[in-house]
UniProtKB/TrEMBL annotation:
Record protein name field: Armadillo like helical domain containing 2
Record-linked PANTHER family: ARMADILLO-LIKE HELICAL DOMAIN-CONTAINING PROTEIN 2
InterPro entries named in the record: ARMH2
Source species of the chain: Molossus molossus (Pallas' mastiff bat)
Record Pfam families: ARMH2
Length: 229
């Protein structure tokens, strides 16, 4: 009898963990992402703007792609596109997909301030949040290898400030990958195939996540099934 009950207990445990993960992502989103975005929306978005935000996304997309502008300004445009993709629904996400090609290219640059890179990461998180279509488009844009490559980056100096900034970028990368892969089996499978990712997440999970509601390196580690090996 005990043996027959074991699978049921395990299934209940897995369901409980998944529900907890979803709540964790939602709580972090509300506190650290939307708390900032709502203020920006109130200050800048005109009341008469189309629900799908197409025109705004197009304008911001031109800023994002303008190589003559400072990278920080382009990253802020990407940040706003992510917000509009989230608030505008599936159609806005479709319009934003074109701009995300440029975000994918920028994320591969090593010559970028951590603050700008975090804005780009937040843009991807907004675009993919609870949107399977955007998550699948992100996969086509090769964002999984682009994001996991960030874990291989090392700070150019040994100063405490630069090391801390580099770690913060990697923490945000863990969060973005958690958002992208949540409830998306193909993306989970692709991440499991990243050879060095398991060890990298173990190292990041041992870092100082003070100020974060969850240790998202651990969340991602569990989400893609490394705990089973």
């Amino acid at each position: 009898m005990a043996k027959s009950q074991a699978p049921a207990r395990f299934g209940t445990w897995v369901c409980g963990c998944f529900v907890g993960l979803c709540r964790c992502l939602q709580r972090f989103w509300s506190i650290h992402i939307m708390g900032f975005f709502v203020k920006k929306k109130e200050e800048r978005l005109p009341p008469a703007e189309s629900i799908f935000h197409k025109e705004k996304i197009v304008v911001l997309g031109h800023i994002l792609k303008n190589e003559s502008l400072a990278i920080e300004e382009r990253a802020r445009a990407a940040h706003r596109i992510g917000l509009l993709a989230f608030t505008g629904g599936p159609m806005a996400g479709t319009f934003a997909a074109e701009s995300m090609k440029e975000v994918a290219l920028l994320l591969q640059s090593h010559k970028m301030a951590p603050k700008a890179k975090i804005l780009l990461l937040q843009s991807v998180a907004c675009w993919c949040y609870l949107d399977p279509a955007a998550q699948n488009r992100a996969k086509l844009l090769q964002l999984i290898p682009i994001l996991t490559a960030i874990f291989d980056n090392e700070p150019e100096s040994t100063s405490k400030t630069e090391i801390k900034s580099d770690l913060l970028v990697k923490f945000w990368t863990c969060y973005v990958l958690s958002v992208m892969t949540c409830n998306n089996l193909p993306l989970m499978k692709e991440l499991r195939e990243e050879g060095s990712l398991k060890r990298q997440l173990q190292v990041l999970a041992a870092g100082d996540w003070a100020g974060w509601p969850e240790n998202f390196a651990e969340v991602l580690y569990f989400l893609i099934g490394f705990h089973k090996n």
